[in-house]
Amino acid sequence: MTFDRAVAIVPYLRKLGISHLYASPIFTATTGSTHGYDVIDANEIDPAIGGREGFDRLVAALKGEGLGLILDIVPNHMAASLENVWWKDVIEHGADSRFARHFDIDWSRRLTLPFLGTDFTEALEKGELRVESDPLTDKPSFKYHDAFYPLNPASYAGREEELLETTDTKTLSALHDQQHYRLMSWRDAKSDLSYRRFFEVTGLVGVRVEDPTIFDDTHRLILELVRSGAVDGLRMDHVDGLADPAEYLRRLRSEVGPDCYLVVEKILGPGETLPADWPVSGTTGYEFIAALSNLFVDESNLPQLKSAYETYVGRPLDFAEELRNAKLLMADVNFGGESARLFALAKTLLKNETSATAFSDEELQEALRTLLVSFAVYRTYGDEDGLPAESEEVLANVISEIRKADRRVNSAALSSLQDLLRNGKGKDALEFRTRFQQLTGPLMAKSVEDTHFYRQNTALAVNEVGAEPLKTTFSVQNFHAEMAVRLETQPDGLSATSTHDTKRGEDARARLYAITQSPEMWTQAVGRWREMNAQLRQTLEGEPLPEPSVEWMIYQALLGAWPSDGALIDETELADFQERFVAYLEKALREAKLRTNWGDSNEAYENAVVNYVRKMLSPDNRAFLNDFNDRIEPFVRVGYSNSLAQTLIKLTAPGVPDVYQGSEGLDLSLVDPDNRRAPDFDGLNRMLMEGASSFPQDGFVPSKQRLIAIMLQFRKEQSELFRKGAYVPLETENGDNSRFVAYARNTSADALIVVACLRPLGKDGSQEEAALPLPDHLSDRAYINLLNGEAYSISDGINIREVVGDIGVAALRRMS
Question: Which of 265, 295, 269, 264 has its CA nearest to residue 649?
Fold first, then answer.
């Protein structure tokens, strides 16, 4: 997406009712970047997407249509790329570089550069490393393939020609020893890295924005754009990665002023809210997706679904143990280097403490390891003064749970670590506290979202960013409770249903919720498909592949992504779908880290599973394709109903609705990069124009798009109703409130009643009568359904069947 392409869709966005364009990072990124989070220059707008002139054209177009602009910024990291002049200067000059403190680097040793395909000695012996002049600087550099790593000027002064001509490995090795850096294999990054990275991405290096000078250097252009009025809001990427998020946000708020809209990308754990002293409007809304699962997951059927899955895979499930195993893998292997550095800090800090005599080094290491993997939230928020009260409580609860679990962790070692985190004073104690807090978040994210959620395949719908991995209860009452908290703590936070990071598109997820509503139907269908495709399996070392857990996952993922127009008859479309699905499958297998992973892929295993899917989705397997299409029809139909319901809820519940690109249509995308494909904006614009007068319309997509347009227009007209209006749960007195969700948003001047069916209201699939009593302040009034214009005179209650009709949703505005 370029600025000029974005300009072209601004009129459509205005007609849809959008208030702000919400853009991913626009600052200069590495060549060919597909997302912009690998920034190499935070003070230049990327020429690849149009540069400053293109940006100015976009701002002018937005202002011309009455829209604002929200920018995604990346304070936590930059690209560890030779294209990044700051990073390249650090490579050349080491700790003497004027940018040496811009990055979070451990300068007690040489800077590690884990970008070789093998270890340094082997690369040297193979002749892959030699000295050549960098064509950009004309300086002698280590050349590795197309990369030029600058040399320390003192190491080649007066002998440039000699070094440029030599192939002697001893000379080159000695030269390497004189550098401020150490070239090494990418495989060693997880155990031996001298800089903080973003999660496991060695190509993204942490930035020390806690330093005021570095804040200024990395925010110069951002602040200019806000102060000029070009930008109305900022979204902070991965705020939990910062050393001190609260201080950073206070500094940012003081620089941008009180009117700039600020939201943070943060996962909220069970019962967690944003710290009250953060001067932001809220989060980017992952927790809203999790809250919706309370509505669409049928809790009464979960035991049956779990039992069916256990039978299918041939073993009992222990979700808690599986999650713990995933976390231990992250702590011991993927983040082994970070864990080792923390242990070394703790050991040094505690060596002179009296309490240290009560435990061995091994017991301290095990206590630290257990503490890291036991957090249910991303992190605490301590600073140089220790932990604030809320964080102290979090830490105390974690330690209490560890002791209850009786994992034979040394109690004295735990207490010493707790005291160090709570009260430790001095530079080293602050470093320990900060690095501990910067590690628990990535460890949680990678173990839950990018490991456990690819291993635990019972119900893919609940394996989503922001979800609670061990959630045990789902209910409409839970949703109401969460919305009450949301209204109190972040009424202007974003409410998302799809983002560039979600595991699947919102309409795919809506379909998959239906599996929890009909587990028996699903189990029978999977058994039938497994039998139909049995001859497609490949045996590897005596085991038929894919294994049952993966096969179960494949069929669910297929359901979510299956095209809405039914069986894939056109072979070109089928081939395109097959490639998209195979890319998803390869990522899912590697993220699970059970039989293969990104670092050490098991090609034989991956090929066996991928070939199964390729044959399954082949035109030659038409019997299965037709059967699959026919048997998923009930799930697709319920999925459409769920989609309309979740869309209406997002547009009316507390929060600011975030409509991800193209999701006003049908969003059946798979995990990234599939969910980052360019939408057909021309087609969406035509659809909006053709259906500008009625709801519902012929087909799901125009109905969903029209619903959004209607409700966004109403939000514009009644902004105070949604920003400050009360949230009033509505429930029947003695009925089954799991079949629908209903609530009112009201102020003294206006009111809106929202009703959405969650599953068939009658046991036979029909909608039985259900009366919904209203409180006095909503009773004896005239209402109009904003979705279809029907008027009602309502006394003391609502007949749900009457107001939702066949479409399953209603938005009743009080008229008198």
Answer: 295
What are the φ and ψ backbone dihedral angles of 708, each rounded to 5 degrees? -60, -45
d(CA 306, CA 516): 10
**What does R_g of the chain's alpha carbons equal in angstroms?**
28
Q: Is the dihedral of CA 190, 192, 196, 202 positive or negative?
A: negative
Residue 284, pLDDT score: 98
Report residue 244 as tokens: 């001190």
781 is written with which tokens? Answer: 């009034």
Question: Could you tell me the pLDDT band of residue 766, with boundaries at 50, 70 and 90?
Answer: very low
CB 94 within 8 A of CB 180: yes
Q: Are 251 and 213 in contact (CB under 8 A)?
A: no
What average pLDDT does the chain have? 95
Question: Among candidates 199, 180, 179, which has minimal Cα distance to 189?
Answer: 199
Q: How far apart are CA 662 and CA 664, in angstroms?
A: 5
Contact 439, 342 (CB under 8 A): yes
The mean pLDDT of 609-631, rounded to a whole number, is 96
Across the range 39-58, mean pLDDT stands at 98
Burial class (CB in 10 A: 0-12, 13-18, 19+), 96: exposed
The half-sphere exposure of 200 on its side-chain side, counting CA atoms within 13 A, is: 22
State the alpha helices, DSSP H only, in 632-718: 633-652, 681-690, 700-717
Q: What is the pTM of this model?
A: 0.95
In whole angstroms, what is the distance from residue 295 CA to residue 598 CA? Answer: 35
Interval 400-416: pLDDT, tens: 999 999 778 999 999 99
From the number of C-beta atoms within 10 Å of its C-beta (0-12, 13-18, 19+), residue 408 rates as exposed
For residue 521, how many C-alpha atoms fall within 13 Å in the half-sphere facing its CB? 13
Burial 4-26 (b: 16+ CB within 10 A, else e): eebbebbebbbebbbbbbbbbbb
Q: How far apart are CA 287 and CA 597, in angstroms?
A: 28
Q: Which residues contact 797 (CB under 8 A, 6 or more apart)?
A: 771, 772, 773, 774, 779
What single letter denotes the amino acid at residue 219? H
Strands (E), 164-297: 181-185, 197-198, 201-206, 233-236, 261-264, 282-283
